Amino acid sequence: MRTTLIAVLLVLLTISFTLAEQENAEEIFMIDGVALKCPQPTGFGNCIENCKNCKKDELCCSNGCGHTCTKGIKA
To answer: Which residues, if any, are the signal sequence (predicted)?
Structure first.
């Protein structure tokens, strides 16, 4: 039972990381004439959706689980 639970958790984590990578797959945004993209998430972030009040120079980027306002990097 315990081994099965661990295997299921590993599969879910793998799927989560794969989906996070696909979401940030080089999507380019133009802000004030500058091409920006989201940085790659490092690790497993908070599983929250928090992009309602992003500043003008921030993008709504994946943090490894949810999405948060993040400074874009030059594309």
So the answer is: 1-20
φ, ψ dihedrals at 17, nearest 5°: -65, -40
Give the long-range contacts of residues 25-32, CB within 8 A, separation 24 or more. 26/75, 28/75, 29/59, 29/72, 31/56, 31/57, 31/59, 31/72, 32/56, 32/57
Tell me the pLDDT tens digit for each residue of 21-38: 555 457 888 988 999 999
Can you give the three-state secondary structure of the chain, one letter per residue?
CHHHHHHHHHHHHHHHHHHHHHHCCCCEEEECCEEEECCCCCCCCCCCEECCCCCCCEEEEECCCCEEEEECEEC
Residue type, 59: L
